[in-house]
Amino acid sequence: MRQLPLPLILFVLALLELNVRHCIAGGDQDWPQWRGPLGTGFAPNSNPPVQWSETKNIRWKSALPGKGHSTPVIWGQRIFLTTAIPEGEPLPPRKSTAPGTHDGVPVTHRHRFVVLAVDRGTGKILWQKTVHQKLPHEGGHYTGSLASNSVVTDGQHVYAFFGSHGLYCLDMNGDVKWQRQLGEMLTKHGHGESASPVLNGDNVFINWDHDGPCFVAAFNKHTGTPAWKVNRDEETSWSSPILVEHEGQALLIVAGTNRIRAYQPTTGKVIWECGGLSSNIVATPVSADGMLYAGSSYEKRAFLAIRLDGARGDITNSRHVAWTRSRGTPYVPSPLLYGEALYFLTHYQAVLTRVDALTGEDRPGPIRLGGLGNIYASPVAGGGRVYVTDLDGNTAVVSHDDAPRILAVNHLDEIFSASAAIVGRELFLRGNSHLYCIAEEK
Known about the structure:
Elements: H1 6-25, E1 58-63, E2 73-75, E3 78-87, E4 110-119, E5 125-134, E6 152-153, E7 157-161, E8 167-171, E9 176-180, E10 198-200, E11 203-208, E12 214-220, E13 226-232, E14 242-246, E15 249-254, E16 260-263, E17 270-274, E18 286-288, E19 291-297, E20 301-307, E21 313-314, E22 321-325, E23 336-338, E24 341-345, E25 351-356, E26 362-368, E27 380-382, E28 385-389, E29 394-399, E30 406-411, E31 421-423, E32 426-430, E33 434-439
Parallel strand pairs: 17-21
Antiparallel strand pairs: 1-33, 2-3, 3-4, 4-5, 6-7, 7-8, 8-9, 10-11, 11-12, 12-13, 14-15, 15-16, 16-17, 18-19, 19-20, 20-22, 23-24, 24-25, 25-26, 27-28, 28-29, 29-30, 31-32, 32-33
């Protein structure tokens, strides 16, 4: 029998490995960052369940250590999360001294800041790595956590950003490859930190907006070496950077109180900027088809749709602002972009608005989500449906069409602030104490 040349054998083995990986991860069905594969909250080629309860369609329910509100990030058979675990004896309570502090949690313990990996098939914790130990300088809002920033992965490494507690690169087995300590953030009202990192090319990017010197920065993802750092005229925000591909080029876009800015990812040069949002930016923008959508709701309600074609310099009030809106805009939950429809929640209340993404016209407009209360998780979508989860464990499943209907309201015995993740036929919900894998029973 004729023996195949070694290069051909290696090529065939690589193809087989790729095919196996596609069978396991569903190809484009990984959820590699906190807003999913497209950065919009939508999971392509998915069909998650419509109904579930503590006793129905729960494939597994896994207890998690500590507390964290980071979204499950999924690559192949592994789910990655962050958490903060108190340790040692209680200390005298220390409250935030930030101006206007309210609804804060006092610091009473040192914490271990942990990245962990969970087996997607069983819910078993595969590894958990303590990357930092410290007494936090502030405890954050009572609805928040010390581990609210979601990780991002490229399938070779996992990048975890704990804000004041560091930026870390780990391999898929949990070994730390590099780390960077960037100082302490002083957040508005002492409400804590949550912006997630994003990847593009050889860099990982972070947003460092707080009530001190603000900047956006890029670090080489292989070494952690700073690539560039650009100062920002901003205040505290909790919005994560996003990467947008447009006209054959990448844009790094960060929302802020004074300006939404688009940076060149390789240099940090500002390509365009646009004013018009409120202060306290929490929601992360979404983008597709040459459009960017960003909303806020604090002292004022504001939503902007920005046309990217030809955008350069200061585009405030220019023709590049395709439409604006000043009612029903989001505060904490980020918008969802699903095909031609843009969905967003009013402030953090149970009113979901659906508009035509290109024109901003109501289709049909606000929808009251009966049975839901306050909502901190961002909506996600898949299989022709939209999923909205509130703090009290209720998830409304809404049809994705011009006349949306509430198909189900499902309840779990948990508090949910983390946004859900969808992969294939599975929905992953991370509560204060447990991670759920929700899938149809066979």
